[in-house]
Amino acid sequence: MDHFLYRDGVLHAEDVPLPEIAAQVGTPFYCYSVATLTRHFRLFQEALAGMDHLICYAVKANSNQAVLKLMGDLGAGVDVVSGGEYRRARAAGIPGERIVFSGVGKTREEMRLALEGGIRQFNVESEPEMAALNEVALGLGVVAPIAVRVNPDVDAQTHEKIATGKAENKFGIPIARARAVYAHAATLPGLRVVGIDVHIGSQLTALEPFEAAYAKVADLTRALRQDGHEIIRLDLGGGLGIPYERSNAAPPLPLEYGAMIRRVVGDLGCEIEIEPGRLIAGNAGILVAQAIYVKEGEGRNFLILDAAMNDLVRPAMYSAHHDIVPVIEPAPGAEQAPIDIVGPVCETGDTFAKSRMMPPVAPGDLVAFRSAGAYGAVMASEYNTRPLVPEVLVMGDHLAVIRDRPSFDEIINRDTIPEWL
Ligand SMILES: *Cc1c(COP(=O)(O)O)cnc(C)c1O
Questions:
Q1: What are the residue ranges of CATH 3.20.20.10 in the chain?
Q2: Ligand 1: centre distance to CA 278 (Å)
């Protein structure tokens, strides 16, 4: 359930009518709901209740500092994948001891930043990275807490671009080599092994791939303990999917996910970390756009919006589906007709939906893309010199612009023309 509902025929974000926001900030804009973000976070809290745990919200899903501040206030830790995200999390008030640093290509500069600023653990993804982190830590006279990200070679059964747990993916070290890698880590005085990390992909709609991966992690935990390592923490990654199409079967609930975690790794006495991003932010946000034209083509019609692939790239990049609904509720029984929903960018890829059944939409009407709170604004660009889309946060009847639309002056003045040209 989210908090974007029709009231008196008008789509609201919590208690705020969307046309009111459109009048204030213009279109397109992203809008997030505090109640929904909070609810989703608490679902994970409840799912892991009774187990020693920390929910490390995956910053990359939606990194606006207002969202991070909310998560931090709710008690979340965060998972960051770059020095930039680390800085954002700190700026939003997340303490270093609640920040987990993931990613295959951490630079020494990023390692230094996190070691100096405070860090819960580095999820190390290769032996060269382990060696670099050891050197950086020794140079600073500190010890870096690490988990090694293992690649369990399981099929996450998700879109190929967001599957990360197969042997052919770039992530983690092959689980078969894990004992050797941990043995090596134990010889490096700048590192302290605290646990094991795994993350097999995003938008998973079944529990079986998670369970297969976690069972391998449980076996590895026992083996590593026999080898003399102290494994006190298991980071089980993120990846639980959300229902993008309301007509489809719903993915497993956090409660079912938590029950499986308890069953598979609950007896190991480890602190559990999970790194959900999409499930917390995805359905807590929408993208609101305005119709510019309705164009009649050869055998098909096009609804041309003022939002484009640069604002929401998921349909172009992952062939992703977003439900798109009129902000003014269609009359009951309003006739639906198929239409291609597109943006103004000069690429055929700038197509949000093909032959989508829609009630009548006229130029000037507002539409909302549902499930756009994760991997939406964070992946936006200024392609075609279209300003980055602004973000709005709603709580009850409170409304705040949490990132402004940049002016054209700001955008144009970012370039420098060399004087010798
Ligand atoms: C992307 C990512 C996540 C979050 O995945 P979701 O599908 O958004 O839950 C968590 N951990 C790591 C290491 C990631 O790369």
A1: 34-280
A2: 8
273: annotated binding-site residue?
no
Ligand 1 neighbour 79 (Cβ under 6 A)? yes
In short, whether 145's Cβ falls inside 6 Å of ligand 1 is no
Q: C-alpha 254: how far from its chain's center?
A: 16
| Dist. CA 378–CA 358, nearest whole Å | 28
Is 270 a catalytic site residue? no
Return the amino acid letter for 269.
G
Which pLDDT tens digits describe the chain residue by residue (421 residues)? 689 999 999 999 999 999 999 999 999 999 999 999 999 999 999 999 999 999 999 999 999 999 999 999 999 999 999 999 999 999 999 999 999 999 999 999 999 999 999 999 999 999 999 999 999 999 999 999 999 999 999 998 888 888 888 888 889 999 999 999 999 999 999 999 999 999 999 999 999 999 999 999 999 999 999 999 999 999 999 999 999 987 778 899 999 999 999 999 999 999 999 999 999 999 999 999 999 999 998 889 999 999 999 999 999 999 999 999 999 999 999 999 999 999 999 998 999 999 999 999 999 999 999 999 999 999 999 999 999 999 999 999 999 999 999 999 999 999 999 999 9
Count Cβ neighbours within 10 Å for each residue of 358-375 and write b for 16 or more, e otherwise: beebeeebbbbbbbbbbb
Ligand 1 touching residue 237 (CB < 6 A): yes
- CA 60–ligand 1 middle distance (angstroms): 8
Tell me if 370 CB under 6 Å of ligand 1: no
Is 360 annotated as belonging to a binding site? no
The residue behind tokens 């003014």 is 328
- Residue ranges of the chain that CATH labels 2.40.37.10: 4-31+282-412
239 is in an annotated binding site: yes
DSSP 47-72: HTTTS-EEEEEEGGG---HHHHHHHH
| Placement of tokens 């902000």 in the chain | 327
Of all atoms in ligand 1, which is nearest to the CA of residue 164? 15
Q: How far, in Å, is the centroid of ligand 1 from the Cα of 379? A: 14
| pTM as predicted | 0.97
Provide CATH code, domain 34-280: 3.20.20.10
CATH, range 4-31+282-412: 2.40.37.10
Token pair 């080599």 is found at 177
- CA proximity to 345, closest of 373, 300, 379, 381: 381
